[in-house]
Amino acid sequence: MAENPQAVILVDYPGFNLRLAKTLREAGYKGKLLYYISPQVWAWKKGRVKVMAQVLDLMICIFPFEKDFYEKSGLPTVFGGHPMVDRVVTLRRNWKREPGLVGWFPGSRRNEVKKLFPVMMQAAKAIRVKVPGARFAVSAANEPLAALMREMADAAGMPEARQWVEVGTVYDLMQRCQAGAVASGTATLEAACLGLPYALVYHVNPITYLAAKIVVRIQRIGIVNILAGREVVRELVQGGLTSARLAQEMVSLLTDQARRGQLEQDLAAVTAMLGQPGAYRRAAEAVLAAVPESLSS
Question: Are 24 and 2 contacting, i.e. CB atoms less than 8 angstroms apart?
Answer without folding.
Answer: no
